[in-house]
TrEMBL record:
Its EC number is 3.4.-.-. It comes from the Eukaryota. GO terms for biological process: proteolysis. It is an enzyme of class 3 (hydrolase). This is Peptide hydrolase. Its cofactor is Zn(2+). It comes from Rhizoclosmatium globosum. Residues 136-338 form the Peptidase M28 domain. The keyword Chaperone does not apply. The lineage of its organism: Eukaryota, Fungi, Fungi incertae sedis, Chytridiomycota, Chytridiomycota incertae sedis. Belongs to the peptidase M28 family. M28E subfamily. Residues 1-28 form the signal peptide. InterPro entries: M28_fam, Peptidase_M28.
Length: 363
């Protein structure tokens, strides 16, 4: 997510604006058709999508001893090495071979994780129409049958933006904060769970999206595919920038409330209070579909979004050195402890929803 993405994702914004001017949409329900319009405008058309019914979410955590035991295993050093490794690709642009290699590297990292014998970890690269870079999906599930329905998903994008080259080959960009940081927090959550023997109730999916910067390519494709297949998702948790603490400001978690559902946002808020050790600032808004949580929201799913700060304190620019002297998005500006707080939030969110015994509101 960037300050610039309004301009960058112009096609996407236009679709949204057209939609908003056609109807005065104020609820999630009314916004649903946006997924069709946006999808049709950004890619070739796909068939009409019937989003699954909303699912009831718990209002607060109920598995604190279990979650706490995994959160205590989150390892800042491991997370920092993984994050750094991801920034070593010269770029992770959606139309470059480096962007493809980064996806393969993430998949290999997942495949090298130890997995308990009662669980199964599978990965796949998801290829998208029109772009070179695939998204990466890891699915972690129990081998023991369960009556719990649906799945839980968390994700972040791992691609990078390249100035002046929306269709070009990309340019150097470590994109440490945007979004190696969110990618690393998602990976660390997966790592502590498989490495320390967590057996999911519901399956948990961990997603790393391609092509976010240029129009949410990966997440739109995947969210719309899941909706078209009627896959029941309790909630999606999006991470974007997760590692910058503006000098002189209080470290905190920003909770976004547009393009998210209130049940998921309320639940996320209680997860942040219980597990992150950081204060939170609610009611943050982007004003447009600026990151991957929007894809899941527009496809009709519960979504929530945790961000590195309140809006005004996030990383100033990330693609280049600007004329105002703002820095490139490099590793040295990342606060690894801050990123690990987002790994805690992600772990809490997915473990709680994997285990909670809630019944879905059937159609
Ligand atoms: C990071 O890269 C180094 C050097 O290639 C490698 O030895 C290490 O295993 C990698 N670590 C992780 C966590 O990916
Ligand atoms: C998603 O991200 C955007 C960008 O941060 C934010 O404004 C919005 O509130 C978040 N929620 C969703 C579901 O899009
Ligand atoms: C890094 O982040 C942690 C957790 O948010 C915070 O406690 C610490 O003060 C931050 N350090 C700096 C230098 O901002
Ligand atoms: C969930 O709750 C129902 C009703 O209380 C119960 O019958 C079922 O066994 C529970 N499922 C699990 C996996 O705990």
């Amino acid at each position: 997510m960037k300050v610039m993405c309004w301009i960058r994702n112009l096609k996407y914004q236009i679709a949204l604006l057209v939609l908003l001017s056609l109807c005065s949409c104020s609820t999630a329900l009314h916004l649903k058709p946006a997924s069709h319009m946006i999808h049709e405008s950004t890619r070739k058309q796909q068939q009409q999508i019937a989003p699954p019914s909303p699912v009831e979410l718990p209002s607060r955590p109920t598995n604190q001893p279990i979650v706490g035991s995994f959160i205590s295993k989150i390892d800042v050093n491991h997370l920092a090495i993984w994050l750094k490794n991801l920034t070593l690709f010269p770029d992770r642009y959606y139309q470059s071979q480096n962007g493809v290699r980064a996806a393969q590297w993430i998949e290999n990292a997942i495949q090298s994780l130890p997995v308990p014998s009662d669980a199964k970890l599978t990965t796949k690269l998801v290829h998208h129409r029109d772009i070179l870079q695939p998204s990466v999906i890891a699915r972690y599930e129990s081998k023991i049958p369960t009556t719990l329905k649906g799945i839980v998903i968390t994700g972040s994008h791992f691609d990078t933006y390249a100035k002046n080259s929306p269709q070009g080959v990309g340019g150097p960009n470590p994109a440490a904060d945007d979004c190696a940081s969110g990618s690393a927090a998602v990976f660390e959550a997966l790592r502590v769970l498989t490495t320390n023997g967590f057996i999911p109730g519901r399956p948990i999916e961990f997603h790393w999206y391609a092509g976010e910067e240029e129009g949410l390519y990966g997440s739109l494709d995947i969210a719309n595919t899941y909706a078209a297949k009627g896959i029941e998702v309790l909630s999606y948790l999006n991470l974007d920038q997760s590692g910058y603490v503006k000098p002189g400001t209080r470290p905190e978690v920003g909770i976004y409330t547009d393009y998210t559902t209130s049940a998921a946002t309320k639940f996320l808020s209680s997860i942040v209070s219980t597990y992150s050790g950081l204060p939170q600032v609610g009611s943050q808004v982007c004003g447009y579909a600026c990151t991957d949580n929007a894809s899941w929201f527009l496809a009709g799913y519960n979504t929530a979004m945790a961000f590195e700060s309140q809006d005004g304190n996030s990383f100033p620019h990330n693609d280049e050195v600007h004329s105002d002297g703002s820095p490139l998005d490099t590793l040295n500006l990342i606060n690894m402890t801050h990123v690990s707080a987002f790994a805690k939030i992600t772990t809490g969110f997915v473990v709680e929803l994997s285990l909670t015994n809630t019944s879905s509101k059937e159609k």
